[in-house]
Amino acid sequence: xxxxxxxxxxxxxxxxxxxxxxxxxxxxxxxxxxxxxxxxxxxxxxxxxxxxxxxxxxxxxxxxxxxxxxxxxxxxxxxxxxxxxxxxxxxxxxxxxxxxxxxxxxxxxxxxxxxxxxxxxxxxxxxxxxxxxxxxxxxxxxxxxxxxxxxxxxxxxxxxxxxxxxxxxxxxxxxxxxxx
Length: 180
What we know:
CATH superfamily: Calycin beta-barrel core domain
Distance between the termini: 53 Å
Helix content: 10-25%
Largest sheet: 8 strands, antiparallel, barrel
Number of domains: 1
Number of helices: 5
Number of strands: 9
Radius of gyration: 16 Å
Structural class: alpha+beta
Strand content: 35-45%
CATH topology: Lipocalin
């Protein structure tokens, strides 16, 4: 057990260092970012995600911002037998485009966006048992261009993830009514 502690401490430092180096969209504009998005692709080392990724379909996400600048996210996630609704609230950190959810121990950064076509979002789940990292490609339209997907795939190794962890999520009209 005592031999594992230095390794655990080193791993934690690496995760913290990696989180500190994740860029945030310069001049992030909440008004332009708000609205409807589709999860078009994701890569993550989360064990639950890795077990489910091949059967996942693209959820629809509605993003809004509170008067305090917090990010509110409503998801409509297609499951085989129903449409699962989730609501998440991330508090604004000191930097626009960087948000935290204290109870879930999550950090979310909008790394890059053009606001009208795509956004690349980085998420870290801080967990004592199994910390995880996710990279997500959000698009305003259901279909993702090959060029945008290639750009996203090129970022995966830089975030400590592998292409084997990538899922390009097929679209589904199953939850369309849930966000209308």
